[in-house]
């Protein structure tokens, strides 16, 4: 067997084991969902504690005071590339979608085609990193885990804990309670690592802040579509008005003096705001037109220089039946179609 054939067989077995692991994980998840009662769920554990003699108040206080801190290390523990991880996640979603009972025959054929396409792309993708990962690359891989797994798994778990706590104690988990916190050594672990410098720490910190802001913005966008309300209470309207006032004040202080044309009008949010029935007059005109009465006229902008020194003739206002001439250099026997003032040397 040649070296190339050995490499192809090793890659084939590697992909086979990865795909088998994805199928087994999904099978365990599907099997656990089909079970009526889970022996290790929060509901079952709280029920056993209550039956064992633990008072509900003590259980509630203990859970609220519980603290678990998860620390992300700087060492690259994930050997697979992020490209392969995305493809594995896509295959897992396709397997989950295949279990829907309302799929037609055409939908299942398309799903099989998607699976074949993903597996083919896996085979054509390089599995190895061709360069040594830097501390910033290691931090990026850790943030990828936060984005793809922890960001959705932690709130879902806390909701399950809150529902089980409310069922057995009568009170849900407080909104200010943070039983799970996160720490990170990424970009800051300088124990015998000369590659982690102050610049690396600063870059990783900025990248972490950017990731957090980006994740929150996504959630706020989704929340804006979910909370499609027309009216709000007086308290919410006052809070929104205070935010608008602070935002407009900060923008005014940062604006340049020559860009401020006058005092800015602040639109206050009303508890019940009626929508406009029609557009204002002149809204369909361009920004270079003026509406006088019922007719639209071209607005003539005066140049900041002296046109007589440049030999440029500025057209005066004419009647409706006379054409508007464009400004330009005039020569004997030539028309007004010349170079524009911006091209004058």
How is the secondary structure organized here?
Layout: H1 3-34, H2 42-51, H3 56-65, E1 68-72, H4 82-97, H5 105-124, H6 135-169, E2 180-184, H7 198-226, H8 234-254, E3 289-292, E4 295-298, H9 307-310
Parallel strand pairs: 1-2
Antiparallel strand pairs: 3-4
Helix pairs in contact: 1-4, 2-6, 4-5, 6-7
* Rg, Å, rounded: 33 Å
- The computed structural class is mainly alpha
Shape: extended
Strand proportion, as a percent range, falls in: 5-15%
Extended strand count:
4
The averaged pLDDT comes out at 75
Order of helices and strands: HHHEHHHEHHEEH
- Spatial order of the strands in the main sheet? 1-2
Number of H/I helices: 9
Helix content: 40-55%
Major sheet, described briefly?
A: 2 strands, parallel
Q: What is the terminal separation in angstroms?
A: 77 Å
Unreliable parts:
262-277, 283-301, 314-345
Explain what the structure shows.
The protein is mainly α and 345 residues long. The chain is 51% helix and 5% strand. The chain is built from nine helices and four strands; from the N terminus they run H-H-H-E-H-H-H-E-H-H-E-E-H. The strands form two sheets. Strands 1-2 form a two-stranded parallel sheet. Helix 4 packs antiparallel against helix 5. It is extended. The C terminus is likely disordered.
Features:
disordered C terminus; 5% strand; 345 residues; 9 helices; mainly alpha
Give a brief rundown of this model.
The protein is mostly helical and 345 residues long. It is built from 9 helices and 4 strands; from the N terminus they run αααβαααβααββα. The protein has helices at residues 3-34, 42-51, 56-65, 82-97, 105-124, 135-169, 198-226, 234-254, 307-310; strands at residues 68-72, 180-184, 289-292, 295-298.
């Amino acid at each position: 067997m040649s070296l190339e054939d050995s490499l192809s067989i090793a890659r084939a077995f590697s992909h086979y084991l990865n795909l088998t692991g994805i199928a087994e994980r999904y099978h365990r998840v599907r099997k656990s969902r089909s079970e009526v009662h889970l022996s290790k769920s929060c509901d079952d554990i709280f029920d056993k504690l209550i039956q064992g003699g633990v008072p509900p108040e003590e259980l509630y206080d203990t859970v609220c005071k519980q603290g678990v801190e998860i620390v992300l290390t700087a060492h690259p523990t994930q050997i697979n590339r992020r490209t392969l991880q995305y493809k594995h996640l896509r295959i897992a979603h396709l397997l989950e979608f295949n279990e829907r009972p309302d799929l037609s025959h055409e939908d299942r054929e398309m799903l099989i085609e998607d699976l074949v396409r993903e597996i083919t792309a896996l085979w054509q993708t390089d599995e190895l990193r061709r360069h040594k990962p830097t501390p910033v690359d290691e931090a990026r891989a850790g943030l990828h885990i936060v984005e793809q797994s922890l960001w959705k798994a932690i709130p879902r778990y806390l909701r399950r804990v809150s529902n089980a706590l409310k069922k057995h104690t009568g009170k849900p988990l407080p909104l200010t309670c943070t039983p799970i916190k996160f720490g990170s050594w990424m970009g800051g672990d300088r124990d015998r690592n000369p590659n982690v410098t102050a610049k690396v720490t600063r870059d990783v910190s900025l990248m972490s802040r950017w990731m957090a802001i980006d994740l929150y913005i996504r959630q706020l966008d989704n929340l804006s579509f979910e909370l499609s309300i027309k009216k709000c209470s007086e308290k919410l309207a006052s809070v929104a008005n205070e935010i608008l006032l602070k935002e407009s004040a900060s923008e005014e202080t940062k604006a340049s003096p020559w860009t401020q044309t006058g005092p800015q009008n602040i639109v206050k949010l009303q508890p019940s705001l009626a929508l406009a029935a029609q557009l204002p007059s002149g809204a369909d005109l361009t920004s270079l037109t003026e509406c006088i009465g019922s007719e639209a006229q071209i607005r003539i902008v005066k140049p900041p220089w002296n046109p007589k020194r440049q030999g440029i003739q500025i057209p005066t206002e004419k009647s409706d039946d006379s054409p508007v001439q464009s400004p330009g250099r005039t020569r004997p026997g030539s028309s007004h179609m010349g170079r524009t003032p911006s091209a004058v040397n």
